[in-house]
Amino acid sequence: MLVEGYRTFSTFGLPQEQRVARWEEHNASALIDLRARTLDGTALEGREVVLDLGGVHLADVAASAHVVERSAQQIASSGVDGVAFYFALRGESFFYHSGGVQLQRPGTLLVCDVSRPFMRGFAHGLEELVVRVSRATYEQVVGRPLPAEPLVLGFDDVPGSAHAAALARLVRTTLASPGPDERAAAQRQLGHLMHAVLHGSTTSDDHRRAALAHIDRHLCERDLSVGAVARAVGLSERQLTRVFSETGTGVARTVLDRRLELAHRLLSGPGRPVVSAVAERCGFVSASHFSRVFRERYGCSPAEVRVGS
Q1: Are 221 and 258 contacting, i.e. CB atoms less than 8 angstroms apart?
Q2: Tens digits of per-residue pLDDT, 60-114?
Q3: Counting C-beta atoms within 10 Å of the first and last residue's C-beta, which end of the chain has fewer, N or C?
Q4: Domain-by-domain residue ranges, the chain?
Q5: CB burial of residue 253 (10 Å; 0-12, 13-18, 19+)
Q6: Comparing 6-200 with 218-308, is the CATH topology the same?
Q7: Reported pTM
Q8: 218-308, superfamily in CATH?
């Protein structure tokens, strides 16, 4: 993919004796300088996608079991400082630093200062999303010095975690489609979301953005309610209702609209699943209710859209 600042790398197909060195070289130039070693001398299998947005790097990383270390010597010579946000998707890991050891499990976010030495170990491999932010960008956006101690926060369906979940979702979607529009949107939103993760949200836009991310992740759940969304964002139902009232569309109506939009895409796209399957996939209580509200929205039945596609 020929996109400015977009790089992909994989150790697959490389001679086994070259894989660790090439993995280190790629990370040093694309993301962060680390020394790596595999466990028991096994071959390293890894792939990585990195997007440079200027002051912020996004990455999607997967690798087999190994250990990485960032030493004081590397920090002094690399010129890379700032903060890393590590979103664990698969595999437990340890994070060793001067203050002790912390465990990171899937569904958690680790925030750490990369200008301080550390070691990370992945006994069973890893899949993670990464945001690396330069010191200048971090302090400008977040409005505070780099964290003195690493932070571990939830981002996967933990009450109050919707901002971190929205940040992880933004990283994933931007890396999947890194065109000019997506890059511009990411640059606008990253600062707000990082600030909201570390400070708690301070604006209605932050709350709304996090709520929409939670809604989109849970559209298939029939019991998705205003209360559930409010808990995810860390607000009361009254506060969340007030946030959405500023746009003229309530929370429940927003959920319905997004379900209908998803249903329309499924019915008009490839595969064309049957109407009852679409109703279930989009969280409607019944196919009849789905058909009624779909006709009210689009002026035709779901079956007509499916056949017409």
Answers
A1: no
A2: 999 999 999 999 988 988 878 899 999 999 999 999 999 899 999 999 999 999 9
A3: N
A4: 6-200, 218-308
A5: exposed
A6: no
A7: 0.73
A8: Homeodomain-like (1.10.10.60)
